[in-house]
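Morning F.,

Quick status update on the modeling queue. The single chain you submitted on Monday has been processed. Sequence for confirmation:
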Amino acid sequence: MKEDNLSAVEDFFIVGFSDLPKLQVPLFAVFSLIYVMALVGNLLIMTTIYSNSHLHTPMYSFLMNLSFIDISCTTIIFPPMLAQFVLNGAHMSLTECLVQTYFFMVMISTEFLLLAVMAYDRYVAICNPLRYMTIMSKALCMRLAAGIWLFGFMTPLPHTVLISQLNFCDSHTVNHFFCEIPSLMKISCSSTYKIETLSYIFMAVELMTSFLLIIISYINIVSSILKIKSKGGRSKAFSTCVSHLTVVILFYGSVFSTHVRPASSYSTEKNKILSLSYIVITPMFNPVIYSLKNTEFKKALRKTKNRV
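Structure tokens below.
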């Protein structure tokens, strides 16, 4: 297509779920409730950890980071999405769209790495319990957290720059509830080869590397647990990592099913539903998973409630 046939798009119309007019009010109510639950649940985790000094350990410091990511991720997506129900779809400028895309990718990228670090933390705790506090020192935990966030903020920059250079011709309707990269590529009349290639590299390097580290950690964890002679000892050891393992399965399962596939097989309606699994379900259930499966945290939570 010739350059003079291209028309610059200054804003996008985010369709959201406006194609379901009869469900606008129920969906608004449901997603509002989910957003509040995610915020309250994750804020409660952060408050409980902060106010109980015996929880100031590596595992819980990483959990605080995870809760912060969940709060940030839902806040990036939910307020604009809820506005779509009120306005029957909503407009976002190109800059707003790029900002939303960038910070959403920052949170997803950071969570990949954080879950891998949390798996390593559980590996050290179970396989080297006597040296745990020596290996997972405060200085190392701070460096790991800083490295995770630095890498998380750097990774989406190339994607964001390439998206900003796309031409969208006369199409400005994003058939999704937020500015997701596949949805933007779908309405672009420019070549998306560079972005697709970069996305596959990202998946191979960050997603697969972090996932591989988790697998290696849990192979060693399971091997160590099986060597424990008493059934009670095995159960206690496994209970310390079951919450993390559950979150990993939820998060990686939804991300793999949504993004690890060629753009040619992209289905907008299917992608909306799949995206909800890690944007909505994971942040909402993370507090529940850690509250129900972690005895130490449940005791600290009761203490925090009693103080209030």
